[in-house]
Write a structure and sequence with these properties.
Layout lengths: L2 H6 L49 H16 L3
């Protein structure tokens, strides 16, 4: 037997969900969250199925090159 099982031998088994209060046991003055309006999500633009550096903006390529050059030169 493992050390953990011998430490847990004296504890009674737990029943899943036994410590959760039911709706009948909750106090009536306790505030409850209610969904008033459904959240509206902004329309998402369809993502391109394939992107590469040739389709990227010049700013993105310049930033990518700086990042890669830093990785190649950085010793840490």
């Amino acid at each position: 037997m493992s050390l953990l099982s011998s430490l847990l031998d004296h504890m009674p088994p737990t029943i899943a969900g036994a410590d959760k209060p039911t709706m009948a046991n909750r106090s009536p003055d306790r505030p409850r969250l209610v969904l008033v309006n459904r959240a509206e999500r902004p329309v998402q633009l369809p993502a391109s199925t394939y992107t590469n550096a040739a389709m990227a903006t010049p700013e993105w390529r310049h930033t990518r090159d700086q990042y890669i050059n830093h990785l190649m030169a950085c010793r840490s």
